[in-house]
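[Q] Does anyone have a clean structure-token version of this?
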Amino acid sequence: MTDITHIEAFLACPTPDLWLENALCNQTIMLIDHANCEKKAASTALNLIYRYTDNF
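[A] Here you go.
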């Protein structure tokens, strides 16, 4: 088993077991959602770079 005590110490509250079970049963949906969040973050970063070109 993997020691995740450092992760648990970082979190503000424990992750419910039901959430973990659902996440593991729906890994494809979780990965697609994460990819969409990453795309949005990248888009925002590029937007900020072009908006504030004088600051770089």
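[Q] Thanks! Anything notable?
[A] The chain has a mean pLDDT of 92.
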